[in-house]
Amino acid sequence: MTSIREPLHGAEADAVREQLREPSNLTISVNVARLLLAQHEQVDHRDLYAVNRAHGALAEALRLVLRAVDAEVPRSGKLSDLGERCPAAQADDPSPCDGPPIVTVYAPRGEGADGCGHHAAQLLAATNNTHPVALPDAPVGAASEVFKAAASLRYFAAHQGDGR
């Protein structure tokens, strides 16, 4: 056996170096994400506290992994901070999209703007003689749902808070 004061060389040094090597940020975040997923895999959905705790843990796990690969999302929670919104979103309306575009809102002269359910409904409520047409990959009944949502909004909801 060699003295701890003697320097290690060759395979012995490589083995010790490997044991002392720090894991990467990605490795750490993946391990934490796995742990959080395992802890919250079975959640009683009738227990609101447990659901909220699981949601927070899963959101944090995803945030850690995204940070490790330099793709972290801003903490504001606004999708608009991530880039462009759907074409139906009004420029002075700060609300985020509620999903991908599902309908095209057509004006009488044939112009159209693709929109998520939220912004398409606001556009319908804000303009006269427009109608929604579901996009080919939209869920069944998307145009009807947007039309019903628009009927429950006040005129130009974007200028009046949430419009309800």
Q: What's the total helix number?
A: 5
Number of strands: 3
Helix content: 40-55%
- Total individual domains: 2
Strand content: 5-15%
Q: Strand order, main sheet: write it out.
A: 2-1-3
Order of helices and strands: HHHEEHEH
Give the C-alpha Rg.
26 Å
Separation, N- and C-terminal Cα atoms: 78 Å
User: What is the mean pLDDT?
Assistant: 80
Main sheet summary: 3 strands, antiparallel
Regions with pLDDT < 50 over 5+ consecutive residues?
A: none
What is the 3D form? elongated
Q: What structural class do helix, strand and pairing data support?
A: mainly alpha
Report what the structure shows.
The chain is mainly α. The chain folds into two domains: 10-68, no CATH class; 80-159, no CATH class. Helices cover 41% and strands 7% of the residues. The chain is built from five helices and three strands; from the N terminus they run αααββαβα. It has helices at residues 10-20, 25-39, 48-68, 117-126, 142-151, and strands spanning 103-106, 112-115, 131-134. A three-stranded antiparallel β-sheet has the order 2-1-3. The longest helix is centred in the middle third of the chain and has 21 residues, at 48-68. It is elongated and about 85 Å long. The N and C termini lie far apart (78 Å).
